[in-house]
């Protein structure tokens, strides 16, 4: 199997998925959760089926920019602009009176605009700091070329994930595509996993390079990828199995989170096999020192 | 490398400890003569007196898993003369008193950042939470007058009977000065003795009454109950102070055996009537009780299902080493759970996600080792040598990948929002334990296998015997 030789095809495939995502991010932006833009959110569970449109009609009377979405037959997700204390109490009382709300299965959250602002800055900063520290550690263990390629693969996964979510949230208008704190957690997990995967292959390359052999750098990298392939696929498959199970059974509030993990981990496996190591080869050709 | 008896002993001891802690609730039931099923009375607490160790051993569930309300409050409009941090601390202390006096177990009130206070109330909905936090402590000043308080009077005054009967032959009498008249109170220092005391100011009504009261009290001999003023918060006597001089002009000082901390506490209590600024809700979240329980069930189901898939896969793909890995994994899960319980780590949904991810990484370490062992076996090494080489050569990859995960956890823990912190801590613990599990447990188990004669058939390892060259 010649993975390194066909590298351009694999880069192309990555771009084919990432570019639409980036376009969507630039044109449509994100479907931001209340923790990033401020607002109130009711996750209502009902004792019997209720149509989202009925709740929407009721919410429209309050004039609070309410968006109501169906979340399973017996539930809706109501998102509004930030409500004051008094208005929140009124709306809550009204909804409980008019619909068969099961309060013990419902949840509510509210985020003020100041906190929302901090979170946006915080999330971007976290990814940046983590990336820098990982580059530093990998430069120490391998060298800076390996480190930069690992981080490029990591950024691939971050862009792919956020792009897919931008499309999901804005183009398909699905509540699954919401960007919230849980999404950031998922993105960070994906970063950890992606780097983890890449390092395993890099470790093989490092080991094979130490042994004197007649292989060229390119052949060496390809051999290392093949040698690690069983491990890469086995590990990812077990994680993917667990995540699919989680996704199917998880309640609406965390479905988006498990989906993000799923997308990210598939992407992380792909990028560590088909992007990170082939990139090393490209760099070596451009700068053969 | 042979089987290391000391390492085996270490694994055994850790396993026993972990099982003891995981099963502690049962030990506790036996020790307190409770039936082994049904709901538990009291909180299982493990205390080792000579180590000064005391910890409640149970899974601390976050609000998203047990239901309840979490509020992030912001304090603004602080009176001039106080810093925002001081105001925040005072407000937090006041809110904590309000919460505690409402008797909610496991509630949390803590300052955060410069001007925020986090309040977590398990099992309480948002409306109840607002009521609890809005409840003011009621400060009243009493004087001691000769006589005996009868039970009904004490009940009418809403006083704690023990406190009300503190002095034989004297009963408390309300002076009509209460918390609504305290405009501010703060800790200060006595200029002569350099000891901490508490200064406070009253509004004009309170000031007049306090002036009359103290003038009267000073006329009684020092040390007698009639020389004292008794400060009650709600029904409890918090301060029973000697009056050394009359206090007029709207401000006064309470002295008498304060430490810096108790003076601060009293100042806070005197302030209880009035928060030192305006409190607004910056963010709130409320989770219904059943919703939390459903989430826990789903997570457990997912965890069990995940573990089952992983074990099945390991057995089918790696055969005999798969058995070893499965044992190591179960031990790993037991140790991680014991650490969560022992250090009182709060488990949230994100925390569970971190833990499940770390299970994936623990499996990965085993997969890395076994792939290497297979390679070494194919290359014709003996079983013992292949296992040793397999662990040895897999180690750099395990080390580097886990350290970079730990770096990410570190960044998340120190800079992340609370939800992200919960994720980082369980992932970090999981990764640390998984490194131990892979390198010590799996390796020692493999070495034991290598020493067993029936376990030497290569087919058990999913490898065909290399053809004699």
Please outline the helices and strands.
The complex is a heterodimer of chains A (289) and B (469).
Chain A: H1 7-28, E1 31-32, H2 34-37, E2 39-45, H3 52-60, E3 67-70, E4 75-80, H4 85-98, E5 107-111, H5 113-141, H6 144-171, E6 178-179, H7 181-210, H8 217-249, H9 252-286
Parallel strand pairs in A: 1-6
Antiparallel strand pairs in A: 2-4, 2-5, 3-4
Chain B: H1 5-22, H2 24-31, E1 45-48, E2 53-56, E3 60-61, H3 63-66, E4 68-76, H4 84-101, E5 108-112, E6 116-122, H5 126-134, E7 139-146, H6 151-157, H7 161-164, E8 170-178, E9 182-189, E10 196-202, H8 204-218, E11 228-233, E12 236-242, E13 251-254, H9 260-271, E14 278-287, H10 289-318, H11 320-342, E15 346-347, H12 349-378, H13 383-415, H14 418-451
Parallel strand pairs in B: 3-15
Antiparallel strand pairs in B: 1-2, 4-6, 4-14, 5-6, 7-8, 7-11, 9-10, 10-13, 11-12
Report what the structure shows.
The complex is a heterodimer of chains A (289) and B (469). Chain A is α+β, with helices and mostly antiparallel strands. Chain A folds into 2 domains: 7-33 and 115-286, Multidrug efflux transporter AcrB transmembrane domain (Multidrug efflux transporter AcrB transmembrane fold); 39-111, 2-Layer Sandwich (Alpha-Beta Plaits), CATH 3.30.70.100. Chain A contains 9 helices and 6 strands; from the N terminus they run H-E-H-E-H-E-E-H-E-H-H-E-H-H-H. Chain A has helices at 7-28, 34-37, 52-60, 85-98, 113-141, 144-171, 181-210, 217-249, 252-286; strands spanning 31-32, 39-45, 67-70, 75-80, 107-111, 178-179. In chain A, the strands form 2 sheets. A 4-stranded antiparallel beta sheet of chain A has the order 3-4-2-5. In chain A, strands 1-6 form a two-stranded parallel ribbon. Chain A is elongated, with a radius of gyration of 23 Å. In chain A, 48% of the residues are buried. Chain B is of the alpha+beta class and 469 residues long. Chain B folds into 3 domains: 5-22 and 288-461, Multidrug efflux transporter AcrB transmembrane fold; 68-136, Alpha-Beta Plaits (2-Layer Sandwich), CATH 3.30.70; 139-271, Gyrase A, domain 2. Chain B has 14 helices and 15 strands. Chain B has helices at 5-22, 24-31, 63-66, 84-101, 126-134, 151-157, 161-164, 204-218, 260-271, 289-318, 320-342, 349-378, 383-415, 418-451; strands at residues 45-48, 53-56, 60-61, 68-76, 108-112, 116-122, 139-146, 170-178, 182-189, 196-202, 228-233, 236-242, 251-254, 278-287, 346-347. A 4-stranded antiparallel beta sheet of chain B has the order 5-6-4-14. In chain B, helix 1 packs across helix 11, helix 10 (289-318) runs antiparallel to helix 11 and helix 11 (320-342) runs antiparallel to helix 12. The relative contact order of chain B is 0.11. At the A-B interface, helix 4, strand 5, helix 5, helix 7 and helix 8 of A face helix 5, strand 14, helix 10, helix 12 and helix 13 of B.
